[in-house]
Fold these 3 entries.
Entry 1:
Amino acid sequence: MYFSDLSSKIGQQRVEIQGGIPVIIDINMHHLPEDLFTNEKVLDGFLSTAPRGFGEIASLGKVESGARQLILEKPKGYQNLNYVEGDYNLESKLKAMDDAGVDIALLRVPVWQEWLRLDTCKIVNDNAAKMCKESNGRLYANACLPPWGGKENLYELERCLKDLGMVGVQLACHYGQLYLDDDAFKPFLKVLNETGVPVIVHHTPLPVHYQSIYDYTNLRREFGRIMDQGTAVGRELFSGMFEEFPNLKFIHTMFGGNWFANQKLLTPKQGKKKEAMLRLDMSEGERITKYLKNNIF
């Protein structure tokens, strides 16, 4: 288990209760406020924050059953996210966990945290904490807040960790056109580095440069996320941000096994035979491998 606080709270206890059987933990359970579709203030907090000026089109629609859904398109006419009413309440979560044999799940807002204002984040965090309390120890939550530093944002981080009992912080792997190695995030990352709290980093629906992949649904909705996550991890590794913030622990979600093949390509080793020319930088391997061991999970 990578969450130190979570491990101390539930790790050994759960294993002992289950007679030594390994605990199954889902680190990526989606969470939205339970009253998202019935509370106009909450719904507006989601709908109004997607930046239409940058091509993010948020709207409200319905599925065939009549249930409402929150839809995100980019570009217009191409759907990337669909959140359906009724999928995110506590009862649905616990049933899904039972069906899948999951003991414990960690809550995280799916993708939308890229735009949410602080006031909406507070509502999200309060509801997550309430849901965790009512789950009888089966749910834990990650704090959701804007990543720009500033006193009010940092007060919310402190409230989430100390008062609401959250065990991690969530980030999108890019905000607008800025990946997390950008200087804009340094004030917030400095605090996270000092706090030592684990950070869940989730892809956004599309990478910053998406124009060549949006035409086809599966290419856009699946490969686009892989491109975004791979770009984010690569920038984090090569930018040197972990040299400045060595205590950061980034857990990149939904990052498949193909990464472990690709990381070999990013850290090539010098061969015994002298090449006519060196096409790749051979000097970075040791440094990048250190970050992969200490900072990326």
Entry 2:
Amino acid sequence: MESVPYLTRTLAPVEVLSQEGLELIEHNADLLLEQVGIEIVGYAEALDIFAGAGADIDGTRVRFPIGMCRRIIEATAPRSFTQHARNPQRSVVIGDPHIVLAPAYGSPFVRDLAGGRRYATIEDFNNFSKLAYMTPSMHHNGGTLCEPVDLPVNKRHYDMIYAHVKYSDKAFMGSVTHPSRAADSVEMARIVFGEDFVRDNTVILALANANSPMSWDFNMLGSAKVYAESNQATLITPFILAGAMSPVTAAAAATQTLAEALAGMAFTQIVKPGAPVIFGSFASSMSMQSGAPTFGTPEPALVLYTVAALARRLGVPFRSGGNFTASKTPDAQAAYESAISFLPTIQAGVNFVLHSAGWLEGGLSMGYEKFIIDSDQAAMMERWVAGVDMSENGQALDSLLTNGPGQHFLGTEHTLANFESAFWSSTQSDNNSFEQWHEAGAKDSISRAHETWTRMLREYEAPPIDEAMDQQLCEWIARTKASFPDSDV
């Protein structure tokens, strides 16, 4: 399975705002933090932490002096960091100019051509962990690949993290549904990597979403505290449906995103200066008629470009984007909405891309065929971000000068030397003639993708794992699970 551990971008990121425009959004975000502030829900300790750093506390509302959060972040947050994988060759560098692609996250349903839409199980989770491991364009195994609803809510995180460790050797994400589950995630990482290694290195990443507008709760901020204290990485992401959770305009959504993220990132740096942190943004438009989120529209792309530039100015890695769609199946709507949402992600210079493969139904479903189709398109990005080759071979001047007018280049020395690698080639698209396609069964893209993922699972071979570590991890999980009752919360 040949692959690069992450992408390295040579293309300059697309900018949609002037420096003056970005400075104005930064100013407006500071005013929002100073005058409105952040509501802290159910987490008194966070109020004390913010107060100790100089914030103004009024009940459960935290207001920040102008520039406070930015100063804290700029002083200690790393510009990039390495998340170590169980296989060192699959460790990823998160930060400019690199791009790390990870699968979709959090769906309670799964869908495939044969079984249709159904609640996800731990078997589905294990399957997607295996598929992510086997897919070269997925650099990271992700986190909650789907929600295994057949397991108790308060214990399923053990099985999910174990699946990442057992069935893959790529980097992975931990739990944030409660601070105790975040602590479990870190403890499992210590068993896998060793306590000393985890103390000094980042081996696990976790996603903490703000409760937009302008609120952080106990589970998210408490989990962020656990990871930061352990020198592990936290992905701080406001989740905004513009029109419902922020004003409808791109500038306002970007302003609110920045304000909420500044507060969360500053919190991690107050807890532990230098803890790895990623500035995240998830902004979507919505149907003003039904209230449903919409994807593949221009406004969220403009927010993405804007917030990516704000992250570069702040000097921290940035997360956003993915292959988003509101479509229920991997049809034409899914294809064009995913393409229109994914390409700005790459052009904006996003460093960590969650939801790169599998997203359906506005995130409610993880699609097996969609995972394969998205992964195929994601594979294209290695060539895209490399830009124009201006080496001697790229210029091909000798070939241009020695091939006369009207003479094709099919048999030239340069073409023969480059034909195998000259153009990116899809593993899923059918470019044959109609007759060839018809004779092969007249299969559409969904059918081909179905054949691909089922074949991959049949051919799956687990990566090597230290047997003593595996046994220790399994025993710890069994012992810990047995120490408290199952719960659906």
Entry 3:
Amino acid sequence: MQSNFRLKAGCEFYPYDGAKDKEEFIVQTPDKRQFKISALSKNILQRLDGTRSLDEVACELQARSISISTNELRNLLLHQYGKLNILEGEDPELTEYDRKRQSAEIKPPFLLHWNLIPEKQVGWLAARLTFLYHFISIASGLVLIGLTHVLVYQQHAVLGHISNAGSLVVLVLCLVSILFHEFGHATAVAKYGGTPGHIGFGLYLLLPSFYADVSMIWRFRRKERMVVDLGGVYFQQLSFVVFALLGHFFSTPEFFVVCYFIDLMAWFNLNPVFRFDGYWFLVDYLALPNLYKHSLKYLGYQIRKVLGYSVQAVRPQISGYTYWIFLIYALVCNFFLIAVVWFSYRYLTTMFFRLPVLLPEIFHSIIIAFQTHDAALFGNRLVALFFAIAFPGTALIGMYKYASLGVRYFRSKFGAYRLP
């Protein structure tokens, strides 16, 4: 006898502004997780009220010319939605999914992470910064950003000596600019009527990073999501304006060094190869979730087609100039990743040869700083020691991750395609 399935109380549905040729929705779970589903899936899930049997639901779908048997419906619900923890029922397999999920260890990309600013405080401040997204504020801000870049790169291109204490100041100000970056995302969420979540701090792999909970953006229209995507870089460039003016009026080189780092971080964030702001902007612009997987599959399909393999077409449902943007992204992204792996390898080999010399030098400086009670030198050398370990460590973990993905991919595809 088939047991009844029931959608968990507290699950909510919101329209998703994605592909133009089909209707899609976001289902939000009681614990605030969100998943994109089709209109048919929404219709099926809404019928699971605990009173209808799967036989009855299947009959209702068949009456709407949707050919599906009771067993097919059960398998769909179990394998597609059982793992999402949005269903309740006495089905043994569904209960096993729920048990595994509760006992599974959640493994975020952060080795260590802390909630730095609570949701309530983030929402309060973000609501008061929304004026920065008004048209006049944006136009004025862009003008100031342009003028201060001219100021920094033409009038103050040659910097003075940075002391040990100055290096620590640069680090702190860079962290402040990154925090302002996260408030840029949060403020954009508030601008469009959403409630931003907390802002946290952690180690992304081995590198320090802030992060903001802006998961509500999946309910926004595509253009609004694109503004949220770029909001962080926009706010961080506003911090560039502040630091550039402070450096100019007080003749302090540390502020200009921070400006250079802000631009470096902006270029890194806007690079669509990595899953940072530029990637999510392109995802929303093209309306292609899992953009990188789409590009990898499409490029692989084209290569196998040229080599004469019998393959099924995997072209995404886009056309016109957006298709050419996608194609350029697919080519650039994959070749860039190959270059990143190569340069990471060169960096690691060079760095590991240097570490036996570099680490003793840093430790010797730390001892001297401790003996001379030079707090600035002591702090500077501790930071240098951290990054001397963190950068190659992160590169090593990244290479291991991509190598593992590559091995798993080729194992899954080995023998799947044969020459005709």
